[in-house]
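Hello forum,

I keep getting stuck at the same step: I have a sequence, I want structure tokens, and every attempt I make locally crashes halfway through. Rather than fight my setup again tonight, could one of you with a working pipeline run this one for me? It's a single chain of 299 residues.
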Amino acid sequence: MRSRRDSILVLCIVLIAAILAGCGATEQRPALDRIEYTNLNDSGSRELLQELLSGAGVSDGRVQGFFRRVDRFNDSVKQEWLTDGFEEAELLYTKYDPYAMQDEWTAKNGTFPGYNCRITAMNLFGDFLSVRADSQINAGEDVLFVDEETLETDLDALGGSSLADFRALYSSMKAEDTTEIKRHVQTVQEEWASRGVTFRENERIRLITVFFHDKPTEEESLLFVGHVGVLLTAEDGTLYFVEKVAFQEPYRMLRFADRTALSDYLMGKYDTSWGQDTASPFIMENDELMDGWRPNPDS
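Reply #2:
Ran it on my machine without issues. Output:
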């Protein structure tokens, strides 16, 4: 009888260990060290993205506006800096010097800042975002001041969304002085709700937002959108992340097997300060913490 009880006890211990190991699998997985991406400078990747966007229900006007801006950027820089279809690279590798690329852009476009991640994501995702009509956010000297310089010249870059919508989604938020991510996620959710920001559910397209925590003074604690892009899911389950890297850096579409790989890519780029008294960057998928998010595994 004792032998049977002992066997059952051992089996329970094994099952519990297996469950715990499964729960920790994401944390234990090695960090992503290579990416697969395209700068949308070839017909194959452009046709693929066109199909993904159309399949997700993005309006044709938004899609065509996006590709016009891709062409404007790609035509403004040296072609050897861009991919020819999908290419593999180390996580943070670029084929270009960002300062030289900025000079190339400025030589052809003057003082016009160009387009960044926030403008690009709003253009592509705006059909799936609603903002209460009376929402009025004064961005002031917020992180959006260069964005608004672009939009003063080209409001059509939002694809039909309004400047009020843009501010409601992206303006910085007052936050608790804490490093606890759960508290910051709740702050984002509550602030978006107070601004009347809602997301229309569509499994084929999602907004991926990287929030940063900042303490500009001893008294201030803020959350702001440091980077954002659009996540598209193909029929076979493959994930594609579309982003504008920076104002004078290229458009990208990256291919990932799962969301943890996407998290590693974004955290590898942005979760690079350790020992600070602010929270690490975190990733929202629409208005929830992204499943598969984890801090930079190399931190």
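The radius of gyration is 21 Å. If your local run keeps crashing, start a new thread with the error log.
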